[in-house]
Amino acid sequence: MIEESIRPLLAILCPAIGSILIVLFRKRPNIRESWTMLAGIAQFLIIFSMVPLIIEGAIIKCTFFTAFPGVDFGFSVDAFGLIFAITSTFLWILVSSYSIGYMRSLKEHAQTRYYFCFAWAIFGAVGVALSGNLLTMFVFYEILTVSTYPLVAHDQTPEALFAGRKYLAYLLTAGVFFLAAVVFTYHFAGTTDFVTGGIPNLASEASRAALMALFALFLLGFMKAAWMPFHSWLPTAMVAPTPVSALLHAVAVVKAGVFGIVRVVCYIYGVDLMHELGLGLALACLATFTIIVANLFALVQDNLKRRLAYSTINQLSLIIFGVALLSPEGIEGAMMHIPFHGFMKITLFMCAGAIMVASGKKNISEMAGIGKKMPVTMITFSIGALGMCALPPTAGFVTHHLFVGGCEEAGGTMSFFPYILLIAAILDVMYFFPIIYTAFFEKSEGSSGSKSKIKEAPLFMLVPIAITATVSVIFFFYPDLFHISELVEIAVSSLGGVHP
Amino acid sequence: MLSVEHLPVLIVVISLLSAFTIFIAGWLNKRFCWFISFATILVQLVMAVFILHHVLTVGTIHYWLGGWSPPWGIEYVVDALNAYVLVILLFLALICVTYSKRSIAHELPYKIVPFYTVYQLLVTGLCGVTVTGDIFNMYVFIEIFSLSAYALIASRGKIALKASFTYLVLGSIGACFFLLGIGFLYSVTGTLNMHDLSLLLPPLYGNKIVLAAFGFFTVGLSIKMALFPLHTWLPDAHSFAPSEISAMLSGIIIEVSTYAFIRVCFSVYTLNFIKLLPIFDILCWIAAFGIIIGSVLAIAQYNLKRMLAYSSVSQMGYIMLAVGLSTSTHHALWGGLNPALMHILNHALMKGCLFLVAGAFIYKADLWNITDFTGLGRKMPYTCAAFVLAAISMIGVPPTVGFVSKLYIILASLEAGKFIFVAVMLLSSLLNLVYFWRVIEMLYMRREEGEEHSSSSKNEIPLSMLIPVLTLASLCIIVGVLWLTEIPIPILDQVNALFGLGRYATP
After folding, report:
1. Does the beta carbon of A220 lie under 8 angstroms from any beta carbon of chain B?
2. What are phi and psi of A227, to 5 degrees?
3. Do residues B455 and B371 touch, judged by C-beta distance below 8 A?
4. Is A433 on the interface with B (CB under 8 A)?
5. Cis previous bond, A393, omega within 30
6. Which of A153, A169, A179 sits opposite B445 (nearest CB)?
7. A34 touches chain B (CB under 8 A)
8. What is the DSSP-derived secondary structure letter of residue A303?
9. How many CB atoms are closer than 10 A to CB A293?
10. Which of A319, A397, A315 is nearest to A348 (CA)?
11. Residue A400, strand partner residues
12. How many CA atoms lie within 13 Å of A210's alpha carbon, on the beta-carbon side?
């Protein structure tokens, strides 16, 4: 069932119009920030209003024009795209509120530019989520890259400028590969539409070697997923203000990369073709390599945000791993981990930001005893950390359960992989629990003296943290919050069967 | 009754007359110059739009000068190709003349009268090359616009004189080659009319004189359009000319030379001749080298205008690569000359905008070097925003014009089966990223040392300069989307139909 509607367009327009209003009201910060919030809320409501139709099994289409024969420039909203869109837009509302607290507490400069670019980044991310073919996706993918550059280089220190340059160098190079991949796909198949189960004539039009090379191009194109060895832009980008790291480098930007990989695997190649080419195993090996190595890197980081960044790299590859299993449960886990990890990791990042605002501390070794002064922050941090380690009662457990189930379903070599996941989880524990231990149980130096200075971060920041942490727990008991699990099931049910 | 058939000659004649009027009126009052020039070009642009409309709806316009029928008299022939180029060239000329009002008054206050006189002659020459259907007449107009360009480049004096002299020497060699080519063809056919030539030449395609003539045309025009490795005159000329002239040089003059090349290849010689020799394959490779080397040289520049000039060398490579691929592609969208013609417009918009912005920096603060641009993003917000738009367009970020060109050329190379050019195009967009992002970073991100708060007040260029800049910048996006929607494709399609290229090719 195909439904024509302009709702995807409206959803996209919210941040675009918001950005213009942000610039117009640049002299009045309160009004400027309320536009950000309003745009976020409006966008979320519009996106969410599409859920009932999708659950009925419809696909919402919104076509603007035909760019090439077989390539319509436009949106096509399906269950999977909606999951990503819901996650990014809902978290945008929370992060907007958090940004207000963060940016004002630190008296950051160039706040108008910050909110302006943030809105355009969301524009890009939601565009990626809703786009109906590779070309449209590419357009928004590039907008996302360019609009986040000023956010990464926000500090304008030499270090931040370097990070910005590195960011662009990696991601626009990736964009070039992506473009090549799009063009070759079009050359072979004559279309770039996302088709459940893969583009039918792709296999017949291209040779095996060409398909494998094309897949490599796609992977290089989705460098935003920060798979190793092309990950180093992500830890460097952590010089950005924390809300940017939180929303963009834990959710919107990096997930756009992972989202793209899932799209290509399930909707361009299709599970059958992937299996036939043996690309599933290759992708799984790449992902597990990243999972383990990223965790090892994370162990030695002292800067909290950098440690979280490596944890993000690890978790992103977990999503790639899930889809690489090519079994329904694996893919289900992958799709579900996109919102779940989003909520958990954003909690962690926002906590890191809160600690920075409240105490000015960036390194874990300086955080001794901070749990007593900032109990709410550190408790929510612990919840997020539990989620990363896949322990109940958090959302992380649900998806890991699915991944293990997916491995068994896939069988063969794949049934060996749960052990690697176990090792990864142990490593997760090894670098998250020491933080919690330091924060709660170690005594800060000179604790008798001037300890009273540090207190909780402002409410603008604390409330979003509390919400995301609560949601991370709710997901464990009730995964259908925001209809996530229902949408995932719809998305997976149309993809294809189990592969022995 | 003035019918559209008369417009091609009027466009040239009123322009020429206006040049002399400016000269005389300038004696009375210097302020007349700009108004006359602006009004003339505006009228010409309107005429050009009428011509384009007429050509698309009714058909090719033939105008016999003095009523002498061709091949004895001079004939003006306007088909879809010239009409399209004519509109682009007059549009950019109008933009530049608008911009020049304040900037010339500031930069060359004692040379206003000669500036506008010569500028009008330049426009005359460009229009003449575009509308004519007679190859010797084309040579005459090429000389007119070249001579005006030499004068305009030299107008700042000092080092610009040297730049102009280099261009003069090389440009004259180019023009001589072109003339030699004409002479050779005349010696074997006895005619100068392009259409007549295309009828008389086919039996002579094996003739060495005809082949040599083609060689002369190619080399001569390659100098004029600064195709690598004959680009050496361009960086100096473009960087030392007044900025609106740089914009015209980069955005129009080298493009019009490309137009002349396309005309010679397909209207004088024909597709059958091109297919006899591997000329276009070689052209593709030369263009590909030009694309890469132009970009690499641009990275090495510190002077913004020089950097843009080298970038033009690379962009001419794009156009010539697209021309080179035109005979081997047959798709309705990216087949034939479509990508080349598309990039002629796109490059005019992007590079026009960039040079005008570079001029704005010089106008406001006499800043030439990229390293001096710190903090300009705050002082000149609109100008810098325009620069960013045009720059990301050059890099090829969607949905700008640069992206569309890149995409079409890539698709064309794929259809031609030349994967290496796909790689070249992609690599080039990365190189563009390197040298343009450097500037953007300077404009917005670098902190000024010590003077955090003192100089953050706005200091924009006057409105008459800002409007042209912003128009071009917004067109970079608007036209990009238009290309994607395929609305302007029928114009290009008619060109392909004329020459039997693209989907009109006979296998």
Report:
1. no
2. -80, 150
3. no
4. no
5. yes
6. A153
7. no
8. B
9. 17
10. A315
11. none
12. 13
* CA B185/CA B181 separation, integer angstroms: 6
Q: Chain B residues within 8 A (CB-CB) of chain A?
A: 332-333, 392, 395, 397-399, 406-407, 410-411, 414-415, 422, 426-427, 429-430, 433, 437, 441, 444-447, 484-486
Residue A348 β-bridge partners: none
The amino acid sitting at B256 is: V
Does residue A68 sit at the B interface (CB-CB below 8 Å)? Answer: yes
Considering CB atoms only, which of B392, B414, B426 is closest to A146? B392
A156 vs B: CB within 8 A = yes
Report how far residue A320's alpha carbon sits from residue A304's, in angstroms, rounded to the nearest whole number: 25
- Each of the 507 residues of chain B gets a pLDDT tens digit; together they read 568 888 888 899 999 999 889 888 888 888 888 888 999 999 999 999 999 988 888 888 888 888 888 778 888 989 888 899 999 999 999 999 999 888 888 888 888 888 899 999 999 999 999 999 889 999 999 999 999 999 999 888 788 888 899 999 999 999 999 999 999 999 998 888 888 888 888 888 888 888 899 999 999 999 988 888 888 888 888 888 888 888 988 889 989 999 999 999 888 888 888 888 888 889 999 999 999 999 999 999 888 989 999 999 999 999 999 999 888 888 888 888 889 999 999 999 999 999 999 988 888 888 888 888 887 888 888 888 999 999 999 988 888 899 999 989 998 998 888 889 999 999 998 899 889 988 888 888 877 665 555 455 677 888 888 899 999 999 999 998 888 888 888 888 888 888 888 777 776
Q: Nearest C-alpha of chain B: how many angstroms from A145?
A: 10
Query: Rounded to the nearest 5°, which phi and psi values hold at A55?
Result: -65, -30
Beta-carbon contacts of residue A22 (< 8 Å; ≥ 6 apart): A32, A35, A36, A112, A115, A116, A119
B445 and A138: CB-CB below 8 Å?
A: no
